[in-house]
Amino acid sequence: MANRKRIAIFTHNYPITSNQRKDAGIFVYDFAHELVKHADVFIFCPDFGGKKEKYKKVPVTWMDWHGPKKKFGTWPFFSPISVFNFFKLMYIGSREAEIFVKKNKIDYCLACWTLPSSIYTLWLKIKLGKPYGVWILGSDVNVYAKFPILRQLTVMALKKAETRFSNSYWLINIVSKLSERKCEYMDAITDFNVGSVKNKKLNNNVFNFMFAGSIRKVKGVDILVKATFELNKINSRFIVHILGDGPIKPEVERYVQDNKLSENVKFYGVVSKETVASFMKSADSLVVSSRAESIPLVIVEAARAGLPTISTDVGDDRMVIEKYKIGLVCKNNDPIDMANSMFKAMKEGKNFRRKRKIGLRELAKSRSQKVAVATFMKNI
């Protein structure tokens, strides 16, 4: 249709193949594929390596910035090399973004995460007059705001944007104060369908906890395994199934081995979304052990499978869990309190899941790609 908007999504995190579902870029993929029903959509993402699928429905421009192939979010930020690479990424990215927007005759830009994407969109507004929005996702805005130059760039990018979106009410408050501008709530949700997936065969004689995500410091998996050590002192009839991989996995595995927890903690590495769904349909509780978070996608994904959550008190987690009555909240960075919450769940047994069915159903219904895209289209 002639009057369809041509929208560019700028992100540093996008799956290189359609079946890659292991990190945060999956919701950008799912959002783009819902948005394309209403507009022509084009993705711009730095090339961090790997063999790419040739996308047709939503084309992707992989920007070669002549830098390392490690994903931006995994860089050690205080390293001088990382600082150099960051500014190189911003400089080359801004130049290439200008070529990309002209070539694809873009009408509107959306920056996913604050940096580096919002710097590209800010440049495009200054140079070409292109309107843009920033989708603030996760606590990265807090990290960057601690550095004087990055704080100035972040605040400028947020202020100059036509609209600011966030997937967390906790972040909306931070962004509104930082930018002195209104910020709209917009879900960051994956297209996670558990309907046709078979249940995972688990030992029903024990309480089955599960963790699904990246095994990084911020995700607190080290706290979770310390909590299992404490819980094992009280009641050993449980298994924690850990699905995922990441830089601190060897450290976490070593702790499990050294403390003779191998019967209670099982590692599965990176698995498919179908495997995650099968665990969610059979487990007794999800555990979110994050040190920092806005709202983990995995809580909503678990809700679709009817799985309650035990979470640390981060971001919107307490608000969501208490509003929908879908689980328990424990103190952040506190293995003993986490162990106590896990023990409370174990005392309820299979009722821990059964009693929370209604709230889980309500949460799952309230969060969807269709609602997110409707919010976006209304505000551009």
Structural write-up:
- The chain has 380 residues and is of the alpha/beta class.
- It folds into two domains: 6-188, Glycogen Phosphorylase B (Rossmann fold); 207-366, Glycogen Phosphorylase B (Rossmann fold, 3-Layer(aba) Sandwich), CATH 3.40.50.2000.
- It is 43% helix and 16% strand.
- The chain contains 15 helices and 13 strands.
- The chain has helices at residues 25-35, 80-104, 117-128, 140-144, 148-160, 169-179, 221-234, 249-258, 273-282, 297-304, 317-324, 335-348, 351-354, 357-366, 369-378; strands at 6-10, 40-46, 60-63, 108-112, 132-136, 163-166, 184-185, 207-212, 238-243, 265-269, 285-288, 309-312, 327-330.
- α3 crosses α5 (148-160) and α7 (221-234) packs across α12 (335-348).
Radius of gyration: 21 Å
The H/E string reads EHEEHEHEHHEHEEHEHEHEHEHEHHHH
Distance between the termini: 18 Å
CATH fold-level label of the largest domain: Rossmann fold
Helix run count: 15
Q: Identify the CATH architecture of the largest domain.
A: 3-Layer(aba) Sandwich
Query: Whole-number average pLDDT?
Result: 93
Which terms would index this structure?
alpha/beta; Rossmann fold; 7-stranded parallel beta sheet; 380 residues; 6-stranded parallel beta sheet
Topology:
Blueprint: E1 6-10, H1 25-35, E2 40-46, E3 60-63, H2 80-104, E4 108-112, H3 117-128, E5 132-136, H4 140-144, H5 148-160, E6 163-166, H6 169-179, E7 184-185, E8 207-212, H7 221-234, E9 238-243, H8 249-258, E10 265-269, H9 273-282, E11 285-288, H10 297-304, E12 309-312, H11 317-324, E13 327-330, H12 335-348, H13 351-354, H14 357-366, H15 369-378
Parallel strand pairs: 1-2, 1-4, 2-3, 4-5, 5-6, 6-7, 8-9, 8-11, 9-10, 11-12, 12-13
Helix pairs in contact: 1-15, 2-3, 3-5, 7-8, 7-12, 10-14
